[in-house]
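Structure (tokenized):
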């Protein structure tokens, strides 16, 4: 294994594990708020998963394995500083173990585990960020953080529109090109003005794409564990597969909705008949979302999680009650390192056929 340690005074080369399109947001913040170099590792492939699984404990979930593999890729790409996120499930403990595994493999690097600073006090996060740049000022951090959040919202909104409509484009591939171009453009912006400019241009392009959507298309809502539901590679690009079948797909779960727009008490009140207590990181939100889909004309729901994800296992009986009460089918999918596109395709096709027949008979 290579040694990627940094010399004294050397500029930090920072990386964050790949997570959907959010690395673009992290890049913007690292370079514009912290004046550090952001290292982009290769996109995740089966090789990434295999490397992460090879050095991970058997019973950890796939986000741990993918995260570890992505960190290995980042260190091999020249990063000397890794940022690890925090969470309120086992994710909050993963950073220490991942760091130790990487050091046992011979890597020399700085590891900033945000779980160690997640006290709710802004001063503690500032301490973490000053490990990257000791001279960074809070006003600058807040300004750029606001701009980064604007970028994140633009990307999440565009992705939602994409999956709801790309299955009905008249010119095949036109929406995928518009989405890919948006990602490329956002990878280059360095100001709020540029973010807004790209957002306006992207919206214009999407609105100009001709769509031929039936009056009552098959509509499927996707709920599930944060990482696996949001990250396309982790779920074998399930949403794209559904869209290619001519399905209108909606996934409420993303960083913008879960972290910026989540109305905890309001959601809990709306699902009180099914859930009287907060059930974990995304569990309560997923119960609310499943009920929303069931009461707003969706034809089916797909629940996806990593194998062994305890919070999402806990809500499966609740989802079954929603399915029974509202007569809406739910397909349950679990992901780990042993996954097959063929197996997923077969299950999705069978689910689609069942929804189609139900719709025709209604």
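Design, position by position:
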């Amino acid at each position: 294994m290579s040694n990627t340690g940094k010399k004294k005074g050397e500029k930090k080369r920072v990386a964050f594990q790949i997570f959907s399109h959010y690395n673009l947001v992290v890049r913007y913040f690292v370079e514009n708020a912290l004046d550090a170099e952001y290292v982009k590792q290769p996109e995740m492939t089966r090789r990434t998963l295999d490397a992460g699984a090879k050095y991970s404990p058997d019973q950890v979930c796939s986000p741990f394995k993918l995260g570890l593999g992505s960190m290995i890729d980042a260190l091999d790409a020249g990063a000397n500083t890794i940022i690890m996120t925090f969470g309120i499930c086992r994710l909050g403990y993963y950073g220490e173990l991942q760091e130790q595994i990487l050091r046992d493999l011979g890597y020399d690097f700085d590891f900033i585990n945000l779980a160690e600073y997640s006290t709710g006090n802004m001063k503690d996060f500032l301490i973490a960020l000053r490990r990257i740049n000791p001279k960074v000022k809070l006003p600058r951090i807040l300004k750029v953080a606001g701009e980064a959040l604007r970028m994140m919202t633009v990307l999440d909104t565009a992705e939602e529109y994409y999956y709801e409509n790309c299955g009905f484009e008249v010119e095949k591939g036109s929406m995928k090109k518009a989405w890919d171009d948006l990602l490329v453009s956002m990878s280059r912006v360095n100001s709020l003005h540029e973010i807004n400019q790209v957002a306006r241009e992207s919206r214009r392009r999407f609105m100009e794409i001709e769509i031929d959507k039936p009056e009552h298309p098959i509509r499927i809502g996707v709920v599930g564990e944060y990482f696996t539901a949001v990250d396309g590679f982790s779920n074998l690009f399930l949403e794209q597969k559904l869209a290619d079948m001519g399905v209108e797909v909606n996934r409420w779960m993303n960083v913008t909705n879960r972290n910026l727009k989540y109305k905890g008490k309001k959601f809990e009140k709306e699902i009180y008949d099914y859930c009287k207590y907060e059930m974990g990181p995304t569990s309560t939100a997923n119960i609310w979302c499943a009920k929303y889909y069931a009461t707003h004309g969706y034809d089916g729901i797909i629940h996806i999680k990593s194998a062994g994800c305890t919070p999402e296992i806990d809500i499966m009986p609740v989802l079954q009650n929603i399915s029974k009460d509202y007569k809406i089918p739910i397909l349950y999918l679990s992901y780990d390192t042993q996954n097959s596109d063929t197996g997923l395709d077969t299950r999705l096709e069978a689910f689609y056929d069942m929804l189609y027949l139900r719709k025709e008979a209604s």
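Reviewer-requested clarification: The chain has a mean pLDDT of 93. The first strand starts at residue 13 and ends at 16.
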